[in-house]
């Protein structure tokens, strides 16, 4: 997927590049911006903005509130 993904619930089991905007976002691999109440990515090259932000392979801080980022 590449571009904009808008919905109540976004689930992408592959690679998402661009913008994911929803109440809940999930991406196995993401690049760009995840904007939601709850964001989850196994790995991301970009930024998550929301109440709860989880990056599985983030290193020292896999869970953050407000914003989270990774290379």
Query: How many angstroms does the end-to-end distance come to?
Result: 19 Å
Shape: globular
Number of helices: 0
Low-pLDDT stretches are none
Structural class: mainly beta
If you compute it from the alpha carbons, what radius of gyration comes out, rounded to the nearest whole angstrom? 10 Å
Q: Percent range for helical residues?
A: under 10%
Tell how many strands the DSSP assignment holds: 5
User: Order of SSEs, N→C?
Assistant: EEEEE
Main β-sheet, spatial strand arrangement:
1-2-3-4-5
Strand content: over 45%
**Overall mean pLDDT score?**
95
Largest sheet: 5 strands, mixed
Give the SSE map.
Layout: E1 2-6, E2 9-21, E3 24-35, E4 38-55, E5 63-70
Parallel strand pairs: 1-2, 2-3, 3-4
Antiparallel strand pairs: 4-5
What do these coordinates show?
This protein is mostly beta strands and 71 residues long. The chain is 0% helix and 79% strand. The chain contains no helices and five strands. It has a five-stranded mixed beta sheet, with no helix packed on it. A hairpin with a 7-residue loop joins strand 4 and strand 5. The protein is globular and about 30 Å long.
């Amino acid at each position: 997927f590449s571009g904009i993904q808008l919905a109540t619930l976004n689930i992408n089991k592959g690679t998402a590049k661009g913008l994911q905007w929803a109440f809940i976002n999930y991406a196995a691999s993401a690049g760009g911006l995840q904007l939601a109440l709850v964001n989850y990515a196994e790995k991301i090259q970009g930024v998550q903005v929301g109440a709860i932000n989880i990056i599985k392979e983030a290193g020292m801080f896999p869970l953050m509130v407000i914003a989270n980022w990774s290379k």
